[in-house]
Write a structure and sequence with these properties.
This protein has 2 helices and 11 strands; from the N terminus they run H-E-E-E-H-E-E-E-E-E-E-E-E. It is an alpha+beta fold. The chain is globular, with a radius of gyration of 18 Å. InterPro entries: AcCoA_biotinCC, Biotin_BS, Biotin_Carboxyl_Carrier/Decarb, Biotin_lipoyl, Single_hybrid_motif.
């Protein structure tokens, strides 16, 4: 099963209104769960092979300055909508090196505007905005690898 088939399955499940779908084939298992937001399904992809858990020695809890400041930053960003990566791949802010950026901080965007491209397995996937608003912050550097569900943009919907 390739990435396009998985993306199409996610879109189908989101539109169908199903709350959970499980698919098992040979050596892969895919579970898609939709939460309260039908447009943002949660996908869990795991190989069926079993792994032996490794034991770790207990570590004393030490809070850094960043961890203490994190709740303050979280409350400041709570009024913004976070646009997250729907797939794993490489994040690009422009369609090609000689073209202008898709969006910049401070730019107003509309629903359906292309925000970036994520390359996954030599496929370039345009990531479109699902909300309208103003781009407050771009959280990923150009040409950086991104994970599934990693925050990419903060948008002020007001």
């Amino acid at each position: 099963m390739d990435i396009k088939e998985i993306q199409n399955l996610i879109k189908f499940v989101a539109k169908s209104g199903a709350s959970e779908v499980k698919l098992e084939m040979d050596d892969i298992k895919i579970t898609i769960k939709t939460g309260s937001d039908p447009e943002a399904p949660a996908v869990h992809y795991a190989p069926m092979a079993t792994q032996v858990p490794q034991m770790q020695a207990p570590v004393a809890e030490v809070k850094t300055v960043a961890e203490v400041a994190a709740p303050v930053a979280a409350t400041e960003n709570s009024k913004y909508i976070t646009i997250k990566s729907p797939i794993i791949g490489t994040f690009y802010r422009k369609p090609s090196p000689d073209k202008p950026l898709f969006v910049e901080v401070g730019q107003t965007i509309a629903e359906g505007d292309v925000l970036c491209i994520i390359e996954a397995m030599k496929l370039f996937n345009e990531i479109e905005s699902e909300v309208s608003g103003k781009v407050v912050k771009i959280l990923v550097d150009d040409s950086s690898p991104v994970e599934f569900d990693q925050p990419l943009f903060l948008v002020d919907p007001s």
